[in-house]
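Exam revision sheet. Question 4 asks you to relate a sequence to its structure. Input first:
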Amino acid sequence: ALVARYYIRYGAQELPEDGSLPELTWEGAGHVERLVMIGPPNAGALDALLHLTSGIKPGTFFPTYPAAIVGTMPSAYQLLPRSRHQAILGSSGNPIKDLYAPELWRQNQWGLADPRQEEVLKNLLPEIQSASKRRQIALDHQAKALRRAKHFAEAMDRPARPPFGVQLFLVAGDAKTTNKTAQFDAQGNLRIVEKGPGDGSVLRSSALLDERLGSE
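Answer key, structure tokens:
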């Protein structure tokens, strides 16, 4: 859904290297008549952070992918919830201002910044003999992925009305309790402290990109 929305807005444009927003040309809309989005994480999903910090097991017959494996995937960071929606609380209980800040991930040892992922990094970077060099590469990749995810979110959240000729349909669930807010302690450990209506993975408010914080 996110790739399709980006394509309709910007066509084949890459995100500009200088951090500016791509030109809103609606180039892709000329090739799309209808777009049907099923439970799209338009404002991200808290589960993306849990997968990046704890790994993921997609299904019964799938292996568990450790956090360092998930952390190599740039698209995983692009599914993070928006900082302004206050989905992540610090140990003091205050909302995190910038979830995309690389220093936040290093301080809390999340994902690729977790020293316990060293064995995984050995397998990912077999040609690198130095543990410190492997960690440097991992942290650099994580920082780049976070910066690009923030840039991507800014491009996707830009208010705009689709041009005539393209129809957007949204199907969203709200019958299952879904992870909404997480808090981390002084050691960086995350726990769910609030749930909300959604489809079990994506909150209704995320699918709608609802900006009405704290109100119905």
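Marking note for examiners. The chain has a mean pLDDT of 95.
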